[in-house]
Amino acid sequence: MKLSESEENYIKSIYTLQAKTEKVNTNSLADYLNTTAASVSDMLKKLKMKRLLEYKRYYGFRLNEAGIKEALKIIRRHRLWEVFLVSKLGMEWDKVHAIAEELEHVSSPDLIRKLDQYLGQPKIDPHGDPIPDEKGSVPELKQIALTDLSFKKNGVVSSVSNQTNEMMKMLNHYSIGIGSQIKVLKAFEFDGSLQVKISRQPACTISGQVAQNIFVYDDKKIGTR
Amino acid sequence: MKLSESEENYIKSIYTLQAKTEKVNTNSLADYLNTTAASVSDMLKKLKMKRLLEYKRYYGFRLNEAGIKEALKIIRRHRLWEVFLVSKLGMEWDKVHAIAEELEHVSSPDLIRKLDQYLGQPKIDPHGDPIPDEKGSVPELKQIALTDLSFKKNGVVSSVSNQTNEMMKMLNHYSIGIGSQIKVLKAFEFDGSLQVKISRQPACTISGQVAQNIFVYDDKKIGTR
DNA sequence: TTTAATTTTTAGATTTGTCTAAAATAATTT
DNA sequence: AAATTATTTTAGACAAATCTAAAAATTAAA
Is the pLDDT of residue B40 over 70? Predict the structure, then answer.
């Protein structure tokens, strides 16, 4: 299905919103996209025409099977490009989103297949979000708090709940980033500090406040870096 | 200067055409872009408004300094992406143009700077065309026929004048591609055959007909592969 | 349950890029 | 130089995506 850049942006946004609510409504989508309810209403008609949307006027809407399939293709492209920008070009993981927003609309399937191969078929992007595979299935990865990770079991840092500059500085200091392999060696009851081991780094001890904000996958199948 | 995708395509095309003729005219640009003279005429007005064009109605036109600068930025992006697609993703060099046409419109300067670094600051693209640098200066590389390359002097294959499928098969057979380092060891007067050495390949002998279609740079500063 | 507030949709404009057809200008021929 | 031909530009329309303002439908409140 040929989609305009604009249609792709709407589809992706609806996908994101409908993960959180049963029915998506016009205003929330307008808010999310920084546009007007009128524009959304116009686009919904188009997407319904293309049979990508379950949509009753004055009611609410959701992507149908076909719509979800399209959304996952776009999200796959977006996240693969983010991996490229961070792991190959060395860009900061918090600065790649805007560029990936543009790259995601380049839609050659061959390009995306080869990019995926080249990147080693990664399963999560630099923000810790899962990358749908070619067929559109999303790897379901259980995210748990680092504080809940069993001792000496390998985890992969999947997300950080506090993304302030101060927190980023701390994580940088310890060389902890999304995708880092991490293992808990010891926990101190006194203040919740954890002694952890990051791959290719000497063991270090992080405070309870830091640890609380780190989430990991307990899955070994994730590509690490 | 913010330019639409369409404006960028026009600018790039005008740049290409004005390298060949003194004044570019409406019809030839329309032909080149597979569009109508009316559309071209419309766009010319816009580009003149943006002060990228020297343009007198009913006369002819050319990019001015500012226009050329924009064109070189676009061409730089295009050619860097082509290098990426071929040398990193392993795509065929005759199939990357269409994809690069899309990627070239992603305009983050930081992205392009890092991509350039990542690719090792290449000087030519997979078609043998020079890649403008960040400041917009185009490496001037003298292209000579392989048959004119001095004995035992290194050349870099820059272009192939006959791009038929049959020729491609021959070049593939000998592992000769754009960017290949090549050296002439011996020339046979009988039929113009040349014994040549391609880097990391045993020496081989190519016919005069093949040799005639191969062009090289006699410059050592080109990155090879 | 009638009114008020909110949400959603339509109506009508605007912008960008395109087109066809016709008019204007330039170049060639006779 | 007048007529013909070719080229270029304008005029007017259209499609996509957007907007503002007003109308319609729904929901909440009095």
Answer: yes
Q: What's the whole-model pTM score?
A: 0.84
pLDDT of residue A220: 56
pLDDT in tens, A178-193: 888 899 999 999 999 9
Nearest to B105 by CA among B7, B28, B208, B222: B7
Write the DSSP assignment of chain B as a string of letters: ----HHHHHHHHHHHHHHTT-SSB-HHHHHHHTTS-HHHHHHHHHHHHHTT-EEEETTTEEEE-HHHHHHHHHHHHHHHHHHHIIIIIT---TTS-HHHHHHHTT---HHHHHHHHHHTT--SB-TTSPBPP-TTSPPP---EEEGGGSPTT-EEEEEEES---HHHHHHHHHTT--TT-EEEEEEE-TTT--EEEEETTS--EEE-HHHHHTEEEE--S-S---
User: In what order do the strands lie in the sheet containing B194-198?
Assistant: B143-145, B214-217, B154-160, B181-187, B194-198, B204-206
Q: Return the number of CB contacts < 8 Å for A and B.
A: 42
Q: By C-alpha distance, which of A174, A219, A168 is closest to A198?
A: A174
- Residues of chain A contacting B, Cβ within 8 Å: 85, 88-91, 98-99, 102-103, 105-106, 108, 110-111, 114-115, 117-118
Tell me: the pLDDT tens digits for A34-45?
A: 999 999 999 999
CB contacts, 8 Å: A110 with chain B = 91
Contact assignment for B91 to A103 by CB distance below 8 Å = no
Q: What is the pLDDT of residue B154?
A: 86
Whether A160 contacts A178, CB under 8 Å? yes
Q: What pLDDT, in 10s, does the model give residues A43-99?
A: 999 999 999 999 988 899 999 999 999 999 999 999 999 999 999 999 998 889 999
